[in-house]
Amino acid sequence: xxxxxIDHPPLRVAFIHPDLGIGGAERLFVDAAVGxxxxxxxxxxxxxxxDPNHCFEETRDGTFxxxxxxxxxPRNLFGKFYIFCAIARQLALTISLLxxxxxxxxxxxxxxxxxxxxxxxxxxxxxxxxxxHFPDKLLATRGSLAKSIYRYPFDKFEEWTTGLAxxxxxxxxxxxxxxxxxxPSILKKPRVLYPPINFKxxxxxxxxxxxxxxxxxxxxxxLVSINRFERKKNVELALRAFAAxxxxxxxxxxxxxxxxxxxxxxxxxxxxxxxxxxxxxxQLASTFGLKTFTIQPGTLExxxxxxxxxxxxxxxxxxxxxxxxxxxxxxxxxxNEHFGITPVEGMYAKVPVIAVNNGGPxxxxxxxxxxxxxxxxxHVWAEGIQKFVQGTLDGPxxxxxxxxxxxxxxxxxxxxxxxxxxxEELMSGGxxxxxxxxxxxxxxxxxxxxxxxxxxxxxxx
Length: 461
What we know:
- By secondary structure, this protein is α/β, with parallel strands linked by helices.
- The protein has two domains: about 10-195 and about 410-460, Glycogen Phosphorylase B (Rossmann fold), CATH 3.40.50.2000; about 200-410, Rossmann fold, CATH 3.40.50.
- Helices cover about 45% and strands about 15% of the residues.
- It has 17 helices and 14 strands.
- The protein has helices at about 25-40, 80-100, 115-125, 135-140, 145-165, 175-180, 200-205, 210-215, 235-245, 255, 270-285, 315-325, 340-350, 380-390, 395-410, 410-425, 440-460; strands at about 10-15, 40-45, 65-70, 105-110, 125-130, 165-170, 190, 220-225, 260-265, 290-295, 310-315, 325-330, 355, 370-375.
- The longest helix is centred in the last third of the chain and has 22 residues, at about 440-460.
């Protein structure tokens, strides 16, 4: 990668992320590292898990040095205690990093999980930037009093550790508002840094001789949804809306049979929810009489020609680019999504977008200009899809406007400029995070002291 000249010494930046798999958060993390490196800075990636067969290309092709630390700790205990294990894995990663590279970095770019921030603040000379995608306390389910009691110390721990960062960044104005309500003790307003997309990645010509692309080729018009196979992503909204075109006779049988729905997304066999949710979606499609086909990672079998719903698990870049180049419409289903990079990807590929009318898409999709923003009602979505299928709405024109919109606001170059400004401000001591201390501070210090002692005893004896 060609580096640009800079008028100050290059910074040494460590990027820390829990799991370098495939998803919007991981895409942002990688793009942030690309942006920082493009400005001439030295970058290393640290993670608790990295599977070369389930990751973005830049993390396996030599673009970055990727070091895996802490993967020996399980992701859960008997299918539970995910947050406890996630924190333990990140603390193990951080302790290992500090043991061998304590004085190597000027800045630590911490992504998603804030547990390691106290260790970095207390035992290194580097500054800490924390990128908050969304408060974890709001993502956790609390179905019982016992679960609420279990989560309480982790919620307080999240707020305390987040408040110790030297500077805070969020991915949208929506997340910024939620952040301030969720963490009242953190007095500093976080800075908004919209996730970008790397145009060069999407501009690559699609290799039609690639076997993984060939299995997706079809004479049918494609509607595509790109999300991880998680229940909170509400992928069934796209499936129900597509089925409604048939069950409610909104288009002719011939027209319906000339279209297919591709549900593509991150899928990890280690994650129980991914496996269960895929099965639920397949069963739901069957209740509507839809013919389905699942493409698992590594599979090169093509769906039958009469397949109406294709499940594409953990697609690669070539498959994504092919789908975006061929799709009539992109369906983005999550509600209250903190940002959502997928609509931006779709608009850059000149694909009009239907998204839920709340959360991050309100800041990316222009209603009736680059797509539609609709309430999460399958019938309403089916009506929106019908307008594109029947040509009532000019999809190609919307797609062209979407690309222009993305080029002006969500490019990697603009993102790198903003991030460079944040890093310079951070190194100069500007915009430090302010935190209102209370008794929680002292409790957390005691907890961290115990953690450090246990880790010290494990590693040195």
